[in-house]
Design goal:
Oxid_FAD_bind_N; binds zinc ion; FAD-bd_PCMH_sub1; globular; binds flavin-adenine dinucleotide; flavoprotein; D-2-hydroxyglutarate dehydrogenase; binds (2R)-2-hydroxypentanedioic acid; 17 helices; 5-stranded antiparallel sheet
Length: 525
């Protein structure tokens, strides 16, 4: 079951045989090869349980050499391959569409190097983001990215999706903080076999592209690593990552704010930039249905700005949890504003002055400052839990778009009106909600429904993509293209760009075995 995406299996790909499995077992040992149908289930199904493939084998290599050997074999047999990290991707990119071999990085989770002066970290691709952050934390540093899936996602998956997350506004994108990569290519580059000197490493049969440097500055021609940041596994398998960590802040302040309108949210954002500029580390927003969903569906999650902190009832609709599009007595929007600094007194004072300013000009009607780490965690859970709450509620259509910040919520309102007019309003259990990284102009538009429905989908797509294209936005701000949007790439990329992407793919992966059906639209016949 892969929803609403019409693709056919590429008949040129080989099919897994017992001989193939025997080869993999001999290479990785029995523990590195999964063939039992029950054990394969989690490799075949994505986090949302929306995309389900049918692989017959999942592999768990431990070293770059093993990845290189298994890709050499898959290339020779034309076996299609899906790289898989923590499998938290949201666009159907991390699971097979048909019977592609899953190559999981789960057993490649070692930290290889850490420099306590510069804060550069080198780790295998399967290291879990949260573990790396804890590792860096023990040395006075932090990972330059953070996201709700941190407990499961792998650094290789983060790099492959160019994950953005909650603190991009401060620490920038992975295109800046990734210093080096090691990647195994599906085919050896003719002429490169045996090479390995000059600090570029690689050697072997020319399949390992070794760009694993920790230099801040390195202007030596094309910056090849950038190609793999956000390539979603279509060009090769990332086996190790070098990344610049940031100093861990001595002082963290967090405010949860209630805003009376979306223009008030953007006004508060402007004030935050002006008054908190050098310490600002996150600016997030969620609308009131998101807050209600999180408090209604997730245990222990509360909104401290609501009476009792819990979800209010009333209003009907919304699948029985009393969630509606209305604000049900609460504010229509909430914001999280966080600072990372080095002096708690100074930062607290700045935050208090900011609060005075935004409450004084009416852009914020209520607010609370986290008084402890536990309170801050609990506020973050309200924001980070929205995705999970939506998945628990039922079917979800997810869109992750970049739009001009000042008008981005108009898309939510326009779609809400469009669906309601066609009988898919809150009284039918359909909720159109908006949240996301307002500081980065990134809106998460989610449509929650009791069940998947083709009629509903045809009202959402291509409407959303056309809207985004008309407003010069991006159909993927941070989640990637995956399977979900492969046929929609042209809403955000022109024909020359798409053709160049295809040609790069063909040079690196002429048989097209790396994560097929994903990212690139099929060539027109
Ligand atoms: P996977 O899901 O396993 O894979 C993602 C893609 O990368 C696939 O195409 C896969 O083939 C490829 N891939 C994985 N590992 C490798 C590798 N080693 N080499 C080559 N290709 C590889 N994303 C954001 O950008 N910001 C957020 O704030 C955010 N929050 C999230 C919150 C939740 C609760 C969830 C479930 C997801 C969230 N995501 C977010 C989406 C997701 O993109 C990220 O969680 C993460 O970057 C994916 O990492 P992963 O290891 O799970 O990769
Ligand atoms: C977030 O910011 C994630 O919470 C997930 O990027 C968004 O589920 C989504 O649509
Ligand atoms: Zn996000």
């Amino acid at each position: 079951r892969f929803l609403h995406v019409a693709v056919e299996r590429n008949a040129a790909f080989g099919q897994i045989s017992e001989k193939d499995v025997a080869f993999f077992e001999q290479l990785l040992g029995a523990g590195g090869v999964v063939t039992d149908p029950d054990a394969l289930e989690p490799f075949n199904r994505d986090w949302q349980k929306k995309y389900v493939g049918n692989t017959k084998v999942a592999l768990r290599p431990r070293t770059t050499e093993q990845v290189s050997e298994l890709l050499r074999y898959c290339y020779s047999r034309r076996l299609a391959v899906v790289p898989q990290g923590g499998n938290t991707g949201l666009v159907g990119g991390s699971v097979p569409v048909f019977d592609e071999v899953v190559v999981s990085t789960a057993a490649m989770n070692r930290v290889l190097e850490f420099d306590e002066v510069s804060g550069t970290l080198v780790a295998q691709a399967g290291a879990v983001l949260q573990s790396l952050d804890e590792y860096a934390g023990q040395r006075g540093f932090m990972m330059p990215l953070d996201l709700g899936a941190k407990g499961s996602c792998h650094i290789g998956g983060n790099v492959s999706t160019n994950a953005g997350g909650l603190r991009l506004v401060r620490y920038g994108s992975l295109h800046g903080s990734v210093l080096g990569l090691q990647v195994v290519l599906p085919q050896p580059l003719a002429g490169a076999a045996g090479a390995g000197s000059g600090g570029g490493g690689g050697g072997g049969d020319g399949r390992v592209l070794d760009l694993l440097r920790t230099l801040r500055k390195d202007n030596t021609g094309y910056d090849l690593k950038q190609l793999f940041i956000g390539a979603e596994g279509t060009l090769g398998i990332i086996t190790a990552v070098a990344i610049q960590c940031a100093p861990r802040p001595a002082s963290v302040q967090l405010a949860l704010l209630a805003c009376p309108s979306f223009p008030a949210v953007t006004a508060a954002l402007r004030t935050a930039r002006r008054m908190l500029g050098e310490v600002l580390s996150a600016v997030e927003f969620l609308d009131s249905p998101c807050s209600h969903l999180a408090t209604a569906h997730l245990e222990g999650v509360r909104n401290p700005l609501l009476q009792g902190g819990a979800a209010e009832g009333g209003g009907g609709g919304g699948g029985g949890e009393g969630v509606t599009h209305g604000s049900v007595g609460s504010a229509p929007f909430y914001m999280l504003v966080e600072t990372h600094g080095s002096d708690a007194d100074h930062d607290q004072q700045k935050m208090e002055r900011f609060l005075e300013a935004v409450m004084g000009d009416g852009s914020v009607v209520d607010g609370t400052l986290a008084a402890s780490e536990a309170q801050a965690k609990s506020i973050w859970r309200l924001r980070e839990g929205v995705s999970e709450a939506l998945v628990r509620r039922g079917a979800v259509y997810k869109y992750d778009v970049s739009l001009p910040t000042s008008s981005m919520y108009e898309l939510v309102e326009a779609l809400r009106a469009r669906l309601a007019a066609a009988g898919f309003g809150a009284d039918a259990g359909v909720l159109v909600v908006g949240y996301g990284h307002i500081g980065d102009g990134n809106l998460h538009l989610n449509i929650s429904a009791p069940r998947y429905d083709d009629g509903l989908l045809s009202l959402i797509e291509p409407y959303v993509y056309e809207y985004v294209s008309r407003h010069n936005g991006s159909i993927s701000a941070e989640h990637g293209i995956g399977l979900m949007k492969a046929q929609c790439l042209s809403y955000s990329k022109g024909p020359v760009a798409v053709e160049l992407m295809r040609r790069i793919k063909e040079v690196v992966d002429p048989y097209g075995i790396m994560n097929p059906y994903k990212v690139l639209p099929p060539r027109p016949a």
